[in-house]
Structures are given as structure tokens and as C-alpha cells.
Design goal:
single chain; 391 residues; alpha/beta; 7-stranded parallel beta sheet; 12 helices; 15 strands
Length: 391
Amino acid sequence: MNHRDSITGFAHCRPVAQAGSLCYYGCMTKRERYLRALRNEQVGELVWAPNFDYWLAVNRAEGSVPPQFEGLSRNDIVRAVGASIWNRAGALKTTLDPTVQGEWTDEGDARVHWFHTPIGSIRAAWFPTEGAHRSRFLGEHYVKDLESLRVMTYVAEATRYEADYGPALQALEDTGDDGVVVTGGFCVPFIEFAKNNAGYASAYYLWADHRAEVDHLIGVWFERFVEGFRILAEGPGDVVATGDNMDEWTLPPRLFREYAIPFYQEVSRHTRVHGKVFEGHWCGRTHHLLPLVPGCGLDCVEAVVTAPMADVTLADAIGALDGNVVLQGGIPSVLVCEEGCTSDEFDRYIEEIVMPLRGRRGFILGMSDNVPPNADFARVERVADLISGSG
């Protein structure tokens, strides 16, 4: 089947005996197939769901989108390359107690955000990286010492979330039968503190020196984020996802057991009641964390980085999940760049590493983590043909 034909959402019908009846995997839409794959069901075909949002945002801003895709929406580009849509959308709005005021200021090239509270002000600053249209670097964090930790706790206690399902409903309409809609963004509360509030170096010193105060802040984020996830679980999205950027160097197994598993399990109580897939964004080094995933509450780990960008092979990463949790990933970002490998080497990777896993339950082909701005996008275009055998 040519991948252009798959834009309709159908593939060849294949009769497969299942529970004493005749099932046709190929008569499913892309949406149906993707949802079943996310629920760890056998679907007969390899679902291919690339994440190239950052690539598109940068290249569109810099005027370097390939001509054949100019003027197309993100979803229509996914359709054009024969893939399934993984569509992230908002479904919440954040409100603050009136005693907390936020403010943005500019200091040279830095964008600075302030929280002003009755007990003091804190600030964080984002700095340029590769260019005007690229992601900024969080180079100054809100929490620097015990005093700013207390102000951050005040801000967390003043934070609330409310349903705002409009963007997710629009995303469902735009996606149609060609994929799924993902809502979310909250991370494990320890990661919120360590990555976003304090920065990892300061965070671990504060955690060691002021454990009670740090754990209090983490506990507040735990309550707030569970409430946010409850609202998301009650909403229209198909998948409820974390924004963990999980990495064992910054959340090693001992701390994962202490801080991540209880949070995942609490959130999963809400996602399962409402029939949502609970997905973790795991784009770091996770070799020693993957065996801890079965039973932790997650249904899927997405963007899992594998060799050559990590010390675990794709097959071993899937195997570590023991058939109980779905892995979405399999194409490390470096492989879609000329710096990472040649075009022929990319094709061989798909043939030798990915294709032996085709049809395996618990595997969805995606990016690990995303398509970089400098990617050779022709490789992304080619994947659908390569996995269908027509490339």
C-alpha cells in the first residue's frame, strides 16, 4: 500500500481470527487503530505518529518549510506524509489568588517573569539559544534559597486550574478520524520543584538541607496537579499526558519510587474512571527506570530515547515494559538529521531495528523526542513507505 493511500485512514483488510469471531484490523480508521494501540491492544499494523511541532514552528517562522508543505496546517502535513496525528491541545486555564500578581519584563536579551506576593517577590529568566525563533533556556530559576522557596510555596498554594475545553474540542474536530488528541502538561511534583522552580543543582542542596520545606512545596504541587489532571480526565481529550521529561540522572530509581509512583497512581485513578490513556513524556535517559513502569499507573511512555542516543536498544526498552505498558518512540531525533547518519543508514535503521517490531503489541512508532529544526524532513516523509514495504 502506498502511504498516500493511507491518508483516507484505511488500509488493506486482513481477516484475523479473534475470540472465535472474524476481525478486520484494516477496516479501522487511523483514530481507531491508534486508540487501540495506545490501550495495548493488537492492531495488526504499525502506527506511525511523528512529533514535528517544533520543527514546523521554527521553519515556518524562518521561511524554510519545504515548498510542498507551504500553506498546509500541521495536521495536513501529518496526513500528507501518511502518518497518524498526535495532536496536543490545551484544556485548562490557570488562575491565581488575587494576592499574587505576575509580571513580565525584559532585561537585555532575557525575558524575566516575576511573581509578586505579600511575603515577597521571586523571578525567573529565559535566555536566547540558537536564534530568535528557537526555544529559550531557563537560566535563572524562581527558587534560590529558603526565603524564595517559601514565596514559591505561597504561589503554589495560590494556584488553581479551571476547565477550558474549547481548544481540545477544536483539536478533535480538526483531527477527525486521522489520530488522537492529547491534553496535559503537568509533571511529577518533584520534577516541577527541581527542574522548573529551583533548577536541579540548587534543588538537591535545598532538598538535603531543608527537606521538610521542600516536601511541603512538593505536596502542594501534588494536590494542585492531581486536581488539574482530574479536570483533564473529565475533558474531551483522548490522552492525558505528563510533561515530565523523565531522566534517571535527575530522578534516579530511589526517588522515582518515592515521588513519581505515588503521583502516577493517584492520577491514574481519575484517568481510568473516565477511560483516558495516561501517558508519560519520557524523553531522557530511562534505562533503569523502565522496569519500574509496569504497575506505576502509566498506560504509555512516549518519546522514549533509545540507541544510539541512549544505552538501551529499542527492543530492550519495549521488553522492559513486560507487555503491560505501551512505548511510543523508536526513531531517535539524531537519525533524521544529516549530522546523525546518512540517508541510507536511516533506511537501514528502519529496516533492521523498527521493522522486526512491526505488529508487536505495545509499540507505536514515534519520535524520540521530536524532529529537530535542522532535520532532513525527507526522512520523515519516507517513513510511511518504509514501514509499509513500499519504500
